[in-house]
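thread: overnight batch results

M.L. [08:02]
morning all. the overnight job finished for the chain we discussed friday. pasting input first so we're all looking at the same thing
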Amino acid sequence: MSAAIAAYESGVQSILILERDERLGGILQQCIHNGFGLHKFGEELTGPEYAWKYEKRVRELQIPIKLNTMVLHITEDKIITATNAKEGVFQIQAKAVILAMGCRERSRGALNIPGNRPSGIFSAGTAQKLINMKGYLPGKEVVILGSGDIGLIMARRMTLEGARVKAVCELMPYSGGLARNIEQCLNDFNIPLKLSHTVVDIHGSERLEGVTIAKVDEQRRPIEATREYIPCDTLLLSVGLIPENELSKNANIALDPITSGAVVDQDRETCIEGIFSCGNVLHVHDLVDFVSEEAEIAGRSAAAYILDGKKSDTCTVLKTDGKIRYTVPQRITRPKDVDVYFRVASVYKNATLNVYKDGCLVLSRKKKKLAPGEMETVKLTEELLCGAKEILLGLEEEP
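M.L. [08:03]
and the structure it wrote out:
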């Protein structure tokens, strides 16, 4: 919706939103907790309230919408094949396409946890939908694997609904969630966070009866002597999000092996001319406000592509040193001031962010703390980017 509004306000009025759900807003509709909109609107909103601000604007502009419509295929020449109950299978020839499909949760099958397949094992997002939209409580004695933001928020939500959350286990030696969520969702409710721990066994045949957890070593292998049995009837999995890029693969869009999203330039244009990507399908964000801002970039850029045509062929490649896991964008096709988003690979304190232009240090920024769960940005100016073939972002730790 944010991309559509930005495109409309940039001079392109022939826009169509295709949505597979029965209403607009995506995952926000089940996120009834507050904390949304602080950056974008300067006020605390729930997920549905945040979505409604955009839906209201979409309807004011009379941007056409097709709900309950599944996109089946996208080609390199921007032919979209979709289907719904009313029209059956149909095709649309677009001048520009913005991909905003979001992401999905990693399932138990991707974890290889041994044990039977009893009821009571849910992804955190599924449990959130059951509680917030269906009115069902998945269980009463809960263990959560993974300390991403969804897992942390569900620890609080389950507690408020009367369940007892016995532990939140995290494989890594640090939490993958925002610091504010650790404080508000775990510490405020005295829920233990067990870092460097994972679930090594699942017990029960019909219904989950308990899990065995264990501490892991530096290679993330379970330490046998630390095995601990926790009786529970529910296991929630918050073990990562995967950008929903099957349609991108159909269109032969190059994907970044780290983000699992498209490789894009500063305008969020993919390697396929006229196809843009934004939000969690591009890289997993921590704040929806940043999703909306990125979608605005894609919307304005798609409109400019339709109205002004192709850009220049110059290209500056952005690279990282490993301590920084990835950047978005990954390339810059025309020099201008660009905000580069990045995530780090571990927790770093009192580090220096260094930017190198073709091997020469051109920018340094002191950082008190950097964590994988928090998105970071650095502004690269047009002057800095002019004539650059390669920009390298690296971290230098103080001894």
